[in-house]
Amino acid sequence: MNRFARVSVVLFFLTLMAACLDKNSNTTIEVIDKAYLTDEVLGKDVQLVDVRTPEEYEAGHIGDAVNFNIIDSELFLSQIDGLDKEKPVYLYCKMGGRSNRAAELMKKQGFAKIYDYSGGYNDWVSE
């Protein structure tokens, strides 16, 4: 193999590796507030996920949210597998910490657009 061919093969593999490593670079996580959630999410056909514990969820939740407990990471990963990765997903927890962790995990799993209601349920129920 001549020098040009070897360089071409190396460049091809480097480009392929970069594409594989870059698969989540198009994913965005956007922090949203109560007004955005009220205007753009509630009452619409969206993927709204409450990442708190089942006990917290049963005590009260936002709209038609489904409950995927981020604390049980294995179960959480299997639950999010049922979501459409190409459609936006809206997350919230109690105050923003767990939803941020869930957003980062979902980003690694290839979700295209993630919205994080950082105020969480505490903000939702406050005046």
The major beta sheet can be summarized as: 5 strands, parallel
Low-pLDDT sequence parts: 19-24
Tally of strands:
5
Number of helices: 6
Strand arrangement across the biggest beta sheet: 1-5-4-2-3
Overall body shape: globular
**Percentage of helical residues?**
40-55%
- State the distance separating the first and last CA atoms: 72 Å
Q: Give the amount of beta strand, in percent.
A: 15-25%
Mean pLDDT: 87
**Rg measurement, Å:** 19 Å
Task: Encode the helix/strand succession as letters.
Answer: HEHEHEHEHEH
Quaternary status: single chain
Structure class: alpha/beta
Please provide a written account of the structure.
The chain is α/β, with parallel strands linked by helices and 127 residues long. It contains six helices and five strands. A five-stranded parallel beta sheet has the order 1-5-4-2-3. Strand 2 (47-50), helix 3 (54-59) and strand 3 (66-67) form a beta-alpha-beta unit. The N and C termini lie far apart (72 Å).
